[in-house]
């Protein structure tokens, strides 16, 4: 186990009607809030009305900024920063999924930054101040409701970059599984692939003596995989949504990765797909993850045997390790298909024309010096290209 | 799954040399600290010197109060409160196990309470202010380094009472597994029994649809039980201590019990033993827990079959549920014996003379109205007496 520094201060209010407490809880914390959200869905499904009713009941003053899109854009972040400064906003309440929350975090740090907030992403600048962020989660996926991470797309530069700071961890997140009932199937499936990937990126490691976090990772994965097909089939199943929703939060609050060298190659490879083709992050991960596994597993075959047996339920006896791992990867592919997720780049509408460009961007080779990505196996741009080709 | 409110803001700094950062981390937070600890062990094993060196290097001003004993006493808490007021202490740094930390929490809330701090325990009063508490853990057991709980013994009244508030959660806890190397065998074993009990109290429930937290509980238990015999045999095994130490923190930071009705009958029954006979809390739990299981398992036999199979490794096929559960309980008893823990009340030096008195105190019957204890099965004083007798 490696040394670690665990800090997950976000208070999680979970369950039916939990959103009704938001006004009361925020009242002592804000004089003027920014209500930040996406498109019209929360207005159609009643969530907007329920949340604003709670804010009104507590007499909370707020301004609004909607319009967050998947792969949230820098331009809207700029707009939000200007609005916060102009109106004297002191807290941001994001209502939505990872996109709205990530956009809120960008605005929260941008409000105190003297310059273009994109600098912070591009130069990985340290920040010492950000507006407090609270969230009401409407799509379980990104885990942004408890993490200090934010990913923003610079649409002019066709770049999608992530940034993380403990100062960006939400102070409070409300998770009401009933809010997930109206999600379309593809959003459910993309969210599930994303939260599973958050565990995979931490789970696959060369660090040894990791009994506890191995077990935590495996439990979160098994729980999500057991319950996700249930909600895909019946999006109004409260109990199954509770497991998936809670699982998505635990997947990304940091705990399951403590003391382990982490990987994150799949996330970095996927960000290139999303930046250029604007594909859903989870769908991209579902395509790339099995291909990545095939490409890297021989570098730590014991770890992948453990995955196949403990997570995918492969019988680990009387077979050679390669066969066990391949059966595990195959079962993962079948699980993603059962979730109606694409299994190839072409299924995502991505042809072979820009694979090399993306591989070079993902590893920095496009911008001068190459920085190999990944933890379990270090991947240069040619490795990344090989994985993209495996996923075609 | 039940609605829940999860809040675990304690930052956990974990690993070799992590204590060397304490001065630097506390510097911005305190003008004058109280250094609170137990007997002489931290002076003999070098921990006191290492911690005070870090405080001195950062120029932190502090006063000291040692002398905390297991089952920490109200009288020392009173002394600490007076000291904090007199010296203008603004933060308490507890160096020790659960006793030092629980005592620090009592002082932290007592410093702002206008009256005897014992009132807060006895009347379960709500508090809105407490001094911040940081901890350096030297005995992994109580989980107090991340919880908002404190248990204090009123030696005059022979009463041991617990109290919990989110305001008592430490802001920072340092866990260096090397600090556990000099623990005597009985403290190692008592600590292990205590942390396992923190999971048991949350795990055994009648709440349904608890896939994720079932799995988290089972993983924490398996990890502790796999590694505890290793450290008992070789107290300088860093890797095994890392698993046990981290496991003890996760066991009690709240996460594994979220959304579940909890039990806590064993803890309440044990507090009576400790209050009268001053036995080690963990040893008392190791004696009472299997007896409690025997007495209650038929009320939710599926839960206990799951425990026997998933935690104790009992083969769940081709046998009747009673036999599976009894084998699971038997294996737990064998595990405690392997940890060289007592298995009966007489092994703790407790005879039958005051069992009824303790049963009536545990359930409130001694003070007028009876309040049955426990969650999975409600226990009146006659049930508690029966469990004490099973444990004789």
Task: Kindly provide the radius of gyration of chain A, computed on alpha-carbon positions and rounded to a whole number of angstroms.
Answer: 20 Å
Question: Which architecture of the largest domain in chain A would the CATH scheme give at its second level?
Answer: Up-down Bundle
Can you identify the CATH class of the largest domain in chain A? Mainly Alpha
Global mean pLDDT of chain A: 96
Structure characterization notes:
Two copies of one chain form a homodimer. The first copy, chain A, is of the alpha/beta class and 392 residues long. Chain A folds into two domains: 11-179, Rossmann fold; 185-390, Up-down Bundle (Dehydroquinate synthase-like, alpha domain). Chain A is 47% helix and 12% strand. Chain A has 15 helices and eight strands. In chain A, strands 1-8-5-4-2-3 form a six-stranded parallel β-sheet, covered by helices on one side. Chain A has a two-stranded antiparallel sheet with strand order 6-7. In chain A, β6 (149-154) and β7 form a beta hairpin. In chain A, α7 (185-203) runs parallel beside α9 (238-252), α10 packs across α11 (281-296) and α12 (301-310) crosses α13. Chain A is globular. The two termini of chain A are 37 Å apart. The relative contact order of chain A is 0.11. Chain A binds chain B through residues 1-9, 11-18, 208-209, 211-212, 215-216, 218-220, 222-223, 226-227, 239, 242-243, 246-247, 250, 255, 258-259, and chain B through 1-9, 11-18, 208-209, 211-212, 215-216, 218-220, 222-223, 226-227, 239, 242-243, 246-247, 250, 255, 258-259.
């Amino acid at each position: 186990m490696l040394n670690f520094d665990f800090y997950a201060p976000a208070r999680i209010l979970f369950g039916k009607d939990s959103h009704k407490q938001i006004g009361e809880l925020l009242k002592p914390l804000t004089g003027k809030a920014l209500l930040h959200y996406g498109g019209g869905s929360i207005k159609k499904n009643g969530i907007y009305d329920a949340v604003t009713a709670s804010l009104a009941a507590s007499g909370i003053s707020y301004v609004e900024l909607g319009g967050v899109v998947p792969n949230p854009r820098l331009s809207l972040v700029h707009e939000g920063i200007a609005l916060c400064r102009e109106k004297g906003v002191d807290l941001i309440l994001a209502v939505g999924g990872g996109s709205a929350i990530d956009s809120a975090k960008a605005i929260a740090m941008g409000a105190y930054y003297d310059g273009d907030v994109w600098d912070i992403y591009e130069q990985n600048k340290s920040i010492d101040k950000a507006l407090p962020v609270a969230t009401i989660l409407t799509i379980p996926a990104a885990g942004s409701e408890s993490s200090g991470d934010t990913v923003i797309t610079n649409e002019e530069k066709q770049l999608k970059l992530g940034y993380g700071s403990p100062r960006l961890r939400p102070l409070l997140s409300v998770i009401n599984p009933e809010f997930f009932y109206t999600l379309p199937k593809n959003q459910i499936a993309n969210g599930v692939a994303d939260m599973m990937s958050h565990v995979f990126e931490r789970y696959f490691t060369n660090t040894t003596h990791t009994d506890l976090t191995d077990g935590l990772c495996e439990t979160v994965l098994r729980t999500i995989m057991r319950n996700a097909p249930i909600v895909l089939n019946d999006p109004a199943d409260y109990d199954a949504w509770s497991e998936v929703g809670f699982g998505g939060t635990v997947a990304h609050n940091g705990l399951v990765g403590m003391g382990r060298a982490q990987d994150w190659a799949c996330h970095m490879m996927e960000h290139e797909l999303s930046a250029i083709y604007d594909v859903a992050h989870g769908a991209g991960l579902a395509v790339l993850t099995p291909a990545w596994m095939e490409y890297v597993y021989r570098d730590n075959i014991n770890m992948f045997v453990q995955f196949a047996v403990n997570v995918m339920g492969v019988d680990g006896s009387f077979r050679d390790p390669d066969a066990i791992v391949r059966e595990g990867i195959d079962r993962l592919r079948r699980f993603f298909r059962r979730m109606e997720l694409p299994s190839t780049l072409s299924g995502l509408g991505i042809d072979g024309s820009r694979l090399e460009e993306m591989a070079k961007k993902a590893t920095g080779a496009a911008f001068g010096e190459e920085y190999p990505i990944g933890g379990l196996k270090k991947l240069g741009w040619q490795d990344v290209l090989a994985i993209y080709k495996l996923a075609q």
